[in-house]
Amino acid sequence: xxxxxxxxLNNITSVECEQLSDITSYNFSxxxxxxxxxxxxxxxxxxxxxxxTVVIIVVALFGNFAVIISVIFNRLMRTTINLYLINLxxxxxxxxxxxxxxxxxNNLTEPLxxxxxxxxxxxxxxxxxxxxxxxxxTYISNPExx
Length: 146
Known about the structure:
This protein has about 150 residues and is mainly α. It has one domain (about 35-145): Rhodopsin 7-helix transmembrane proteins (Rhopdopsin 7-helix transmembrane proteins, Up-down Bundle), CATH 1.20.1070. Helix content is about 70%, strand content about 0%. It has helices spanning about 5-10, 15-20, 35-40, 45-75, 80-110, 115-140. The longest helix has 30 residues, at about 45-75. It starts with a helix and ends in a 5-residue tail after the last helix.
């Protein structure tokens, strides 16, 4: 005896579908939700953290992009040491865009983690990648330092 899937799907009426999607019958009162922090507005300390972090990120991005652009467009600046500085500037851009923003958002919404599992894994990957990137560039440029 075989079951016809199309026939079974056609037998489901729209009323049954509406009843399945109705969540008012579920009891969510047994769960402890942290909603006090979500309703709170930022304090002056949070605003100071936000302003200082944004200023640091903007200055870091501006300075590192200035280093990258000046070395790329000026032929006389293309030495081994300056190429190493470009690599450090790229690593610093990655840290200032990904790691500092994630830290700021986590700090402002401290009891909750609102960024999801992908950002959690990507942030750890970015930190490890930039650390490895800087170590490899240091070793390639001057192996006697290690």
